[in-house]
Specification:
Strand content: 25-35%
CATH architecture: Beta Barrel
CATH superfamily: YaeB-like
Radius of gyration: 17 Å
Distance between the termini: 42 Å
CATH class: Mainly Beta
Order of helices and strands: EEEHEEEEEHH
Oligomer: single chain
CATH topology: Elongation Factor Tu (Ef-tu), domain 3
Strand order of the largest sheet: 1-2-7-6-3-8
Number of helices: 3
Number of strands: 8
Shape: globular
Helix content: under 10%
């Protein structure tokens, strides 16, 4: 019989230079050969939303403008979901292999957020050439780079 046990490998931190991932010392050796990758997929825990109410919220009322009136948690990027797991593709700015620090251009997680895992972004596994999306979000940016300059206030209803 298997069981589920998650061990955070580090946490999100921020300072005057921006956001970075600080790994726990016992996981620093897992960074070997990460240099050369421009991006990583960061799997993190929505720790600020880990409560009974959010874990039992399976639907929400139109979180995005123009979206269906009711959407299931699996059709949104909402932190309210059965397991508050999140994924962010982040550009690597710098890696300090001695201190276990990965400075990133962006991550949509708060300071102190637990990091569960890091995987290198590789186009052969992570990029979809022609993804299909519903009409209500077809005008959203087509890349993380374009998302930085996009006015997300015109999209969200919260």
């Amino acid at each position: 019989m298997s069981y589920l046990k998650l061990n955070p490998i580090g946490e999100v931190k921020s300072d005057e230079g921006g956001a970075f991932i600080q790994l726990k010392s016992e996981y620093i050796s897992a960074m070997a050969a990460l240099d050369g990758f421009s991006h990583i997929n960061v799997i993190w825990w929505f720790s600020d939303c880990d409560n009974e109410t959010d874990r039992n919220t399976l639907q929400s009322e139109q979180p995005y403008k123009g979206a269906p009136k009711v959407m299931g948690a699996f059709a949104t990027r909402s932190p309210a979901r059965p397991n508050p797991i999140a994924l962010t593709a982040s550009e690597i700015i710098n890696i300090d292999f001695d201190l276990g620090i990965i400075r990133v251009a962006f991550i949509d997680a708060n300071d102190g957020t637990p990091i569960l895992d890091i995987k290198p972004y590789t186009p052969s596994f992570d990029r979809v050439e022609t993804p299909g999306v519903p009409a209500w979000c077809s005008e959203w940016p087509k890349s993380t780079e374009a998302s930085g300059n996009f006015n997300w206030d015109k999209v969200f209803n919260f």
